[in-house]
């Protein structure tokens, strides 16, 4: 259901903003990939901030009743928060520059964040 994934996307964006995530980008993967409807990519400047952002995203999604899987929290360099329709990639700044997911998914259109 599109409305459900869009509401989850908004929730994820608000959660990332609340924890002062940097350079937040949302990519619309609908029609491009079966992985998810949206990717959210952002970064923190420290391991602590990365973990804080990812945890806030997880908690916010769980409040919507979403099943959430989180990987990478043990090192907090690249934490993947998989909520089904929306997948958040929370990077440490250095890791984000190295992997540059925005370039890998360049076919996806950026979602305007208001």
UniProtKB/TrEMBL annotation:
Its main location: cytoplasm. Signal peptide: none annotated. Keywords: Cytoplasm, Repressor, Translation regulation. It comes from Cohnella endophytica. The gene is rsfS. NCBIfam families: rsfS_iojap_ybeB. Functions as a ribosomal silencing factor. Interacts with ribosomal protein uL14 (rplN), blocking formation of intersubunit bridge B8. Prevents association of the 30S and 50S ribosomal subunits and the formation of functional ribosomes, thus repressing translation. This is Ribosomal silencing factor RsfS. It is found in: Cytoplasm. The keyword Cytoplasm applies. GO terms for molecular function: ribosomal large subunit binding. GO terms for biological process: cytosolic ribosome assembly; negative regulation of ribosome biogenesis; negative regulation of translation.
